[in-house]
């Protein structure tokens, strides 16, 4: 995974999305930024057909999708990613946050340490696992 991305993965997602301030601080001390999601198909408990249906319905700009590395992951992504990639450009979560930092006004308040909050993200990103989709732009 690291070789394919060309950069170390330094993201932490607390199990179940539940965290305490101390967890975030410890992760930050070890160089990890904390990331949460807002589109969760309950993939570990539901059949693959439900996961595909849910992601087709709910994937949208601003959504960060949480799906787990289980046997259903590959067929789910094979069914959903081509469709989503027609509408979005797939990039890493790190690339999304770099884009968010670059979109910050230069004369605005200094960004806080760690990942920017969802309210400060530019419109349009969708994350799938370690990938993130940005609105497709013409080149």
TrEMBL record:
InterPro entries: Glyco_hydro/deAcase_b/a-brl (IPR011330). Gene3D superfamilies: Glycoside hydrolase/deacetylase (3.20.20.370). Residues 102-139 are annotated as: Disordered. This is NodB homology domain-containing protein. It comes from the Eukaryota. GO terms for biological process: carbohydrate metabolic process. SUPFAM superfamilies: Glycoside hydrolase/deacetylase.
